[in-house]
Write a structure and sequence with these properties.
Layout (H helix, E strand, L loop, with lengths): L1 H14 L1 H5 L24 H8 L42 H11 L3 H34 L3 H41 L1
Length: 188
């Protein structure tokens, strides 16, 4: 019963003739001040009044017919164009410094990959140095008779060195995992 009375009340409000007598909102224009009204309507001022009547009032101003863009490019940090416009000096190549910074801070594997590459490079350099030493020592050893024993010693040294590096790498990984797990437990 309460629902039907509420429905009837809204129906009465809608059907009242007062609502129909009023014009819809925005139908009647309110008097707006025009810019040309500030110049008196004298026969000598027609040109100035006409110019002001057709002058732009809102939006971008175009002095001397040139469009002015009020926006800043994210790549080159200059005003007048957006990122990706052909006017940008970094249109094709992009801003390398910004991109490197972004990649380094967004990609969690970036540091690890870079470290692995550096490590591989160091290992390769050491191998080449060792090869160079071996080749020079082979020439020296060809004159001496104790070349077999020295080669075995060098092999053992290499193996020990490789084992130490692997152990260091494992320790670093364990530290990294432990620090990450402690950080995540701290944040929770």
């Amino acid at each position: 019963m309460a629902i039907s009375t509420a429905w009837l009340m809204t129906k009465k409000l809608i059907l009242q003739p007062e609502n129909y007598e009023k014009p819809p909102p925005g139908f009647i224009k309110e008097d707006e001040t025009k810019p040309e009204d500030c110049i008196p309507d004298v026969p000598g001022n027609e040109h100035a009044r006409e110019f002001l009547a057709h002058a732009p009032t809102k939006g971008l101003w175009m002095p001397l017919g040139r469009e002015v863009k009020v926006m800043q490019c994210w790549r080159c940090k200059r005003y007048g164009h957006r990122t990706g416009d052909k006017e940008c000096p970094f249109f094709i190549k992009g801003n390398q410094k910004l991109e490197q910074f972004r990649v380094a801070h967004e990609d969690p594997m970036y540091d690890i990959i870079r470290e692995n590459k550096r490590h591989e490079k160091d290992v390769r350099i050491q191998q080449l140095k060792q090869l160079l030493e071996d080749s020079t020592s082979d020439e020296d050893e060809s004159s001496s008779s104790s070349s077999g024993k020295e080669k075995r010693k060098k092999k053992k040294k290499k193996e020990k060195h490789k084992k130490k590096k692997k152990e260091k790498k494992k320790r670093k990984k364990r530290k990294h995992k432990a620090s990450k797990s402690s950080e995540s437990s701290d944040s929770e």
